[in-house]
Automatic annotation (TrEMBL):
PROSITE patterns registered for this protein in UniProt: LRR
Protein name stated in the entry: Uncharacterized protein
Highest taxon listed in the record's lineage: Eukaryota
Keyword line: Leucine-rich repeat, Repeat
Amino acid sequence: MAGTMNKNYFLYTVTFLMGAIHCSHEMCLDIHDITVCVGNKFIKGIPEKVDGNMTKICFMHGENSEIPKNAFILLTRMEALYLNLTNIFTIAEGALNRLDNLTTLGFYGNRISRVEKSIFRPVPNLVTLDLSGNDINKISNIKFGALLNLENLLLVHNFIRTIEKKNFESLWKLKSLDLSLNYIQSIDDDTFSNLISLETLNLNYNKIASVEDRAFDGLKRLRSLKLRGNYLQCVPTQKFSSSVGLVIDLQDNKADCKEIQSELDIKNNVTIICG
């Protein structure tokens, strides 16, 4: 979780820096251990000024409706690639070719609504994927089948209204799932049961009014469940007695705090935050 927080901190820091300084188009500069390039287009691949030996790079504020095939084939050492606020609608098949060492991939603040399974095949070692701030309305439109090593998935601030068990069939190693700031209204039984390694589940600030009693079945490693800022009037009779050290955040809901504590089947090893 600390790694995810550091990546988020980096993202917002870079965004702030880029807004604070008036960079010219197609400019690159080094910020700590990462190269940040502003205003680039990938029609003919990466800009010549980008050092092919870089391992971390962030492209921002370019007008790229599509990332073309073989866009990054000269960046074979790349471990972290961020394509933030670049107006991406589509990712061509083969766009991520030759990025065998990539472990972190970010597409924050674009217009992506669909990603086919073939897109992720060249990056089987990916650990962190950030698709926050895009136009995704169905998780099923993002094909995760090739990402068998994924541990952190961020889908913050999209247009997701429903989630289904089949959405996460291949993500057995996933440890952190962030679905905050979406439009999810309910959670059905066994929705997350495929996520056997999940430790953190963030559902803050959705529109969740109902949660089925077995919605969180199978999450034996869960340590943090965030449901703050939803419309819950009652809570599931979910059994959390085996979840040692679990913290459940239920602040800013409609349900009464005492009711929440009495309804949940918990023991002293579970902490409820409500108010």
